[in-house]
Amino acid sequence: MEAAYKGLLTIFLGVGGCLLYFYLSNQFLDKVLYPAKGVNAGRNINRANMIRPWLFVLPAMIALGLYLAYPVVATFWYSLTDRNQGDAFVGLANYQQMINEPKFWEAMRNNMLWLVIVPAASTAFGLMAAQLTDRIGWGSFAKSLIFMPMAISFVGASVIFKLIYDTRPVDQAQIGVMNAVWLQFEGGIGSWLILRLLPALLMLCGAAITAYTAYGFLLAIREKGGAFVRGIAIGILALITLAFLSLALGAFTSVHRYGEAQTWLTLPGWNSFLLMVVLIWIQTGFAMVILSAALRGIPEETIEASIVDGANPFQVFFKIKMPQISGTIVVVWTTITLVVLKVFDIVFAMTNGQWETQVLANYMYDKLFRANDWGVGSASAMIIMLLVSPILIWNVYNARKEMS
Amino acid sequence: MADVKLQDVGKTYGGTVDVLRGIDLDIKQGELIVFVGPSGCGKSTLLRMIAGLEQITEGTLEIGGMLVNDIPPAQRGIAMVFQSYALYPHMTVRENMTFALKLAKKSQSEIDEAVARTAKTLQLEEYLDRLPKALSGGQRQRVAIGRSIVRDPKVYLFDEPLSNLDAALRVATRIEIAQLKEAMPESTMIYVTHDQVEAMTLASRIVVLANKGIAQVGTPLDLYERPENEFVAQFIGSPAMNLLSGEVTKTGAKTTVKLDGGGTAISAVPTQDADKGLKVNIGVRPEDMTETTGTYLFEGKVNITEALGEVTLLYFEKSGDNDAVIGKLPGIHSDLRGKTVRVSAVPEKVQLFHNGQSLYYR
Fold first, then answer.
1. pLDDT digit string, tens, across residues A343-364
2. Which residues does chain B have within 8 Å of residue A315's beta carbon, measured at their own beta carbons?
3. Is the entire prediction scored with pTM above 0.90?
4. Neighbours of B283 (CB within 10 A)
5. Chain B residues within 8 A of A323 when measuring between CB atoms
6. B129 CB within 8 Å of a chain A CB
C-alpha cells in the first residue's frame, strides 16, 4: 500500500509542480519582468510574447538534453577513452579493437540479415494479410488475431517461442512444437515432398519474383533511364536471385537427421532465422493494420477502371493498388527497420548471442555490462546510432510526406 | 460499333432486394442513349451491369450480337468514364491512356499511334507527361475520356461524367462530348446523368428509369411532348408539368374535361363515347400556359412571382389535393403578385392521363 501512496504522491507532485512552474513563470514574466503597463507597455507585451514560447519549451528541452543529448555525447566520449588507463583519451583504439573482433562482425552480419529479412517479411505478410482479410466475412476477426502479438512484450514472445523450439533429453517426452512436427518425418516420400521439394519450390518462386522484378527495372531503364540507381537495384536483386537458387539446390542436397529431436536454437545458420520469426510474428500485425487502412483509402473507382481496362486481380494489386500505397509501404518498412536495428530483447532472452546469433545491441550490452569494457561497448553503441540515424531521418521525411 | 440488347434484365441483391426488374432495351449502333431518373432509381447500377462491374442476376445482355452476361468487363468491348475520373494517380497521362493497351499486349507502334491520335483530338498533347494531380478538373475529364477512346471500344459508357465539374466547364465539356459523338458517328454511347439539360441536348434517345423499371424510352422531344405517364410528364421539364384532376364531359377528336377547380380544359387527345365521365388528370406545362380573360383552364391567386427576365414564374395558391400550380409567362409580370389570374392552354399542349397512364398511347 505504501508504494501506491508514494506513486500517488509522485503524480501529485509532478503534475502540481508542472502547473506551478507554468503559472509562476508566466506571472513572473507578465508582472515583474515586462509588465504590460507604464510607458513601455506596448514594447513590453511584444517582448513578453517573444519569451513566452521558451517558457513552455524549456522543461522539455532540459529533459531531452539530459536524457538524450547528453548520453549521446557522453557515449561518444567514452568510445574515445579507456577506463583502465584512468579515462585517458585513446583516439580510435576502441574502434580498432572492435573491428578486430570476429564476434563484432558476426553481430554486424546478423544485423544485416535481420535488417533485410524481418522488415521485408513483416511488410509482405502484413500486406498479404491486409489484402486478404479485406475480402472475407470474418476478416476483422482474423485481423485482431494477427494483431494480437503486438500486445505481447518481446521478452514474453521470446519465452513463448522458446517453448516452441524447446528440446528435452532423448529419454524424455518432447514438449516443443517444432520437434513434435520434426519427429513426424521419417525420411519417406512425404518427408521428401515437404522438406525437399516444397522448400526448393518456395526458393524457386523467390528467385522468379526477384528475377522478374529485376527484369522490370531493366525495362524501366530502357523506358525512363535512371540507369545508375536502377542498375544497383538490379545488381542486388541478381545477388538475391543467386542466393535463392543456391538455397533451392541446398534443399535437395542437405543432410536431414530424421527421428532425432533437434536443439533448434543451437543450429548455426538456422537459429538466427528462428529468432527472426519471433519479430516477424510480432511486426506483421503492425504492418497489416497500417497497410489495411491505406488499402481502404484507395479510391474504388480507380480499381474498377483498371478492371474495365482488363487488369487481372494480380495486376490490379501490383500495378494499381501497390503504387498508390507505396508511401505507406515505405513508412511501414522503415519503421520496422528501426525496430530491427535496435533488436535486443529477443536475442538476449533466447540465445544471449551464443551459437552465432549475436546482434549489435546485445554485443553492446555484453561489452558494457558483462565485460565492463566501456570503451568498446560505447563504440558499438555509436555504430548502432550511425546505422539508425539515416533510416530514422528518411522515415520521418516519408511520414511527413504521407501526412501532407 | 455494336448494338446493345437487354432482355428482361434484372438485378437483385442477396436474392431479396430488387433493384431493377424486367428491363427490355434495344440500343442501335451509333445511338447516344441517356439514362435519367431520380436518385436511387438504379441508373448507375444498370450502367455498371452493362460494364460488367455488377453481376446480372436476371435476363440477358448482348453486345454486338454476343451474349456477354458472364464475360469479364475487359472482353466486352466497352470503355467507361467514371464520375470521379478514376485516373491512376501514380501514372502520367500517357501511362493512364496506354494502360489498357499494354495489358492487351498491343504493339508499341500501335500504342504510340493511338495515343498521338487521341491526344490530338482532345488537345492533350502538352500534358502527356504530367501526373493527373497537375491537371485541372476539365483536363482530367478529357484524359478519362481519352483513356476510353484509345481502346477503340464498341460501346462507350459514361457515368455522370460532368457532375464533378463547375457550371461553366460543364457546358463546355458537354459540347465537347457532343462534338466527339459527331466525330465518331458509328460508336454507341450510353450516358448516365441526373441533369436534364445534358439528357435533352446529348441524347438520341432518353431512357427514363423509375420504380425499378423503364418508365419511357424515346427521343428527347417525344418525352417532352408526349409523355407516356405522369411520372415522365413531371420528371422531364422544369418546372414540372402541372397535373389537374377532372372529369371527361365531351368526347371525340377533341376531349373536353371539366376540372375540379372549376375550369374547363380542351385536349387534342381523342377519346371515345365510353370515356364520358372518366376521371382523368390533365397535364399542362407551365410554359404552355397563357393569360386569358375568356374560358379558363385554371383560376387562382398568385402567391409568388419569380421574374427571370425572359420569363416570369407564377406560383399559384394551393387548392384541394392537387400540387400547387406553376405558370411560366414570357416577359416580366411582377405586378401579378397577389392578384387572381386566369390561364388557359391550346388543346395540342394538354395531356390526358387516366390512372397515371397517358390516354394518347392507349
1. 888 888 888 777 877 888 888 8
2. 103
3. no
4. 24
5. 88, 90-91
6. no
Residue in the block written with cell 505481447: A152
User: Each residue of A131-168: pLDDT tens digit?
Assistant: 888 878 887 888 888 888 888 888 888 888 888 887 77
Side by side, the strands of the sheet bearing B264-267 are B264-267, B255-259, B242-250, B279-284, B351-354, B357-358
How many helices (H) and strands (E) chain B has is answered by: 8, 21
**pLDDT at residue number B320:** 67
Is B53 close to A324, i.e. CB distance below 8 A?
no
Quick one: which of B334, B3, B333 has its CA closest to B154?
A: B3
Nearest neighbour of A307 by CB, restricted to B73, B85, B104: B73
Domain ranges in chain A are 2-78, 99-175+263-403, 184-258
Domains of chain B: 4-234 (3.40.50.300), 240-361 (2.40.50.140)
**Does residue B267 register a pLDDT over 80?**
yes
Q: What is the mean pLDDT of residues A321-346?
A: 84
Question: Does residue A286 register a pLDDT over 80?
Answer: yes
**Is A38 strand, coil or helix?**
coil
Identify the closest residue of chain B to A301 by CA–CA distance. B86
- We find that the CATH architecture of domain A99-175+263-403 is Orthogonal Bundle (1.10)
Judged against a pLDDT cut of 90, whether residue A13 lies above it is answered with: yes
Grid cell in block for residue B253:
377528336
Say if strands B155-159 and B78-81 run parallel, antiparallel, or are unpaired. parallel
Chain B nearest CA to A302, separation (Å): 5
